[in-house]
Amino acid sequence: MSVASNKLAASPTLKPHKSADIFSKLVKLSPRFLLALLILPVIGGLISVLLPAFGYAPVLEHTTLGLHGFTMLMQTPGLTHMVMLSVGTGLISTLLAFIITLMILAAFFNSPWLNRIQRLLSPILVIPHAAAAIAVGFLIAPSGMISRLVSPWFSGWELAPNGMFPHDSFGISIILGLTLKELPFLLLMALGVLAQPELGKKLRQQHKVALNLGYCPMTAFFKVILPSLYPLLRLPILAVLAYASASVEMPLILGPNTPPTLAVAIMHWFNDVDLNLRIKASAGALLQLVLSGGLLALWLGGEKTIKALFSDLLTNGEREYGGVYWQKITTVLTVFAISFILLSLIGLIMWSVAGFWRFPAALPEQLTLLHFKSALMQMQSPLFNTLAIGLVTTLFAIIITLLCLESEQLSAKPLSRFTSLIIYVPLLVPSIAFLFGLVWLQQLVNNQAAFFNVVFTHLLFVLPYVFLSLASSYRRLDPRFAHVAASLGATPCKVFLHVKLPQLFAPILIAAALGLAISFGQYLPTLLAGGGRIATITTEAVTLANGASRRTSAVYAIMQMALPLIGFILAWVLPKYFFKSAHR
Amino acid sequence: MQSSLEIKNCELYRQHEQLLSLNEQVKGGEILTIMGPSGSGKSSLLNWLTGTLPNGFNASGEVWLNGENINTLPAHLRHIGVLYQDALLFSHLSVSGNIAFAMPKGNKKQRLEKIEHALEQVGLKGMASRHPDNLSGGQQARVALLRMLLSEPKAILLDEPFSKLDTQLRVDTRELVFSQIREHKLPAIMVTHDHSDAEAANGKLITLNLAK
Q1: Which of A249, A317, A469, B14 has the fewest CB atoms lying closer than 10 Å?
Q2: CB spacing of B79 vs A228 below 8 angstroms
């Protein structure tokens, strides 16, 4: 493709440089490797759950296909409640996060507040789900931050009341936790779309045109911007919906226990001492798959219905829908959301350094670093594991991503739409559905290499985020730099290492920090793939959250948040000292 | 009462540097032309008039439309139509959808008839259900013009609206826009680089200088 290689190919006496050949071959194979890496484990895992669900589990001496797994499942007491809980919390939290995101975007579209909200909420993104659940749990507990703040002057409580939060059987705590966690994600995804240079500019100009035509800012957003913005948000929303309906960490920490959500119940069945329950668990995993798939289909169907119902509304000329009131409501909602998030974080920090803290005091009476000291002593092994797994996984993910993106440029063809969709697969298929099967396959192949298995499983979840994060920066590289370098005689390998990578130093660090954050926060993959042998900060945090001291789990939750934060700080600082000229 | 657009003692600043100062009145059917090099504040002036001045710019002065001070009105209540360089048609709506969007509320059938009639008048008969991305530059410019006119504005601003059209198209579209302005007797302000635009407008010409 480059001038240099053409020249070399034309002259018969010169052989092509060997390292360039290996490099190009490697690069050419990467997209297929990426696909295999993402599809095979998921499909393998699903199949390995499919068979036991229908009764085929030679390990347990069941070799007849049948439906007794499903019969056992149907006879579970409270199954309907479990299903309703899973579906309800998933759908409601996604809807809430989506609607509030839209309202914030509409109300603050051209205002500087949007930037401020973005900067405030960005760090929240990297908080793992488990830490967020712990923080929210502290907020709404009977002796948590909210009741302390309103007692005793408002509520008249001198002693902590008997509360139903968290662990309420309606799943309201789960909904709160999920909404507060997913709202920043959706908002920042939307802002990312609007930050794309051409699209963003076009949309802002069209908003201005609508204003000139007499539409109030919020209506202008809904009638003009949303139709163009929504298709680009669809996949992240579906990912949120799929996760919310099948998540394990949130309901484990915030949800009811009798009965829990379906995903949590499945996890308990798989881990039960009675191995026969595995058949029931596999059937349950299939049910979860159907439920999450059904929710996705419901959302897509709802999308089409709304489009059909409201298409007339777009052009009916109605300009005012009480915009002023909606603006006020949105401001109130935003303040509430941000305060909840900030309050839960503050509560977390205070619990971690709290000595004696009696209800209803709003501040602890004693501050002590004892909890941190004792936790840090016990934390060494999990901390080491967390860092090691994160670094290895992220390194792999970055290398594969870079090679794939390079193959795009070397072959001058963009990655197929198929590949772009497959990137989302680990995010859309409920992990509880395929993880157990995947782990079973891993045990078949090699049950000693726990570390490798964990890294491999983490890779499935880290790759999509690293890829999505690096792709836009890579594709925006000016191709003329590569052309100039090639005309000066540089092989593709040299161009890649000496021209492209230095230009991408900052984006690579950000993608790495993101990958690390994702890996640090994984719960189920670590627990299952490691066979319970590998403890990370997150697995410890979840265990502690449901048992022992509030103070210790607060310390672990803070550790969970601190680690990714360090990664991002490094990603922000290092480019200022290395490869400075490449960073504008 | 005759319609008029008045700019009273406008002083426009970017950061702390003064860009321009203006004191003008434009009567209905007249076109005020403003020319000047890039960076002299022409587009910012139009932004100020519509109430969409971005951050980093400050202005003092008043805008009076048909005898009313509209300074305190937000952008969407000013009823000032704008034509930009790019047609900026909404790609999620058809041609008739774009125009219907701009029209006031009313009987659906009547609106459609009005749109059909307007399209015919500018030579776009039968194109109501076409998608805006499939139209040529000149056709898009005409649809954008219809969209603005059918929103029944009280004044019109033109931000170099013909600069992306080739010569012959430019002359035709310009004639169309100006004749509509004169027919509806709307006060108009046009910002342009092109001297022939200024001549065709046949109104007062103001040239801005770059701030030192």
Answers
A1: B14
A2: no
Q: Identify whether residues A157 and A273 lie together within a single domain.
A: yes
- Set of chain A residues whose Cβ sits within 8 Å of the Cβ of B97: 314-315
Mutate to test the interface with A, among B76, B110, B189 (most CBs of A within 10 A): B76
Q: What is the pTM of this model?
A: 0.85
Distance of alpha carbon A152 from alpha carbon A62, whole angstroms: 60
- State how many domains chain A has: 2
Express each pLDDT in A286-330 by its tens digit. Answer: 899 999 999 999 999 999 999 888 888 887 777 777 778 888 898
Mean predicted confidence (pLDDT) in A535-560: 86
CA distance B50 to chain A (A): 7
Tell me the CA distances in angstroms from A286 to A54, A280, A329, A433, one per residue in order: 10, 10, 41, 7
Spans of all domains in chain B:
4-93+137-207
Question: How do B188-192 and B31-35 pair as beta strands?
Answer: parallel
Q: Specify whether A376 is located in the same domain as A260.
A: no
pLDDT at A392 over 90: yes
Residues A28, A95: one domain?
no
A158 and A293, same domain (yes or no): yes
The amino acid at A464: P
Please indicate whether, in this complex, the C-beta atoms of B76 and A223 are within 8 angstroms of each other: no
- A462: pLDDT strictly greater than 80: yes
- How confident is the model at residue A548, as a pLDDT? 66
Domain at B4-93+137-207, CATH homologous superfamily: P-loop containing nucleotide triphosphate hydrolases (3.40.50.300)
Quickly list H helices, A315-430: 323-352, 370-378, 380-410, 417-422, 425-428
Q: Looking at per-residue confidence, does A484 or B141 come out higher?
A: B141
Same-domain pairing of A47 and A117: no
Q: Quote the CA–CA distance of A116 and B160 in Å, as a whole number.
A: 34
Same domain? For A46 and A126 the reply is no
Domain boundary (A337, A368, A399) is at A368
What are the residues of chain B with a beta carbon less than 8 Å away from any beta carbon of chain A? 50, 52, 55, 74-77, 79-82, 84, 86, 88, 90-93, 96-97, 100-106, 108, 111, 147-148, 151
Range of the domain at A82: 68-368
pLDDT score, position A62? 66
Query: What share of chain A has pLDDT > 90, as a percent?
Result: 23
* Tens-digit pLDDT profile for residues A56-84: 776 666 667 777 778 888 888 888 899 99
Cβ <8 Å between A314 and B101: yes
Examine the fold and report which residue of A333, A368, A403 is the final residue of a domain before the chain moves on: A368
Domain co-membership, A392 together with A343: no
Residue B7: its H or E element = strand B4-14
A198 in B contact zone (CB under 8 Å): no
A380/A399 same-domain check: yes
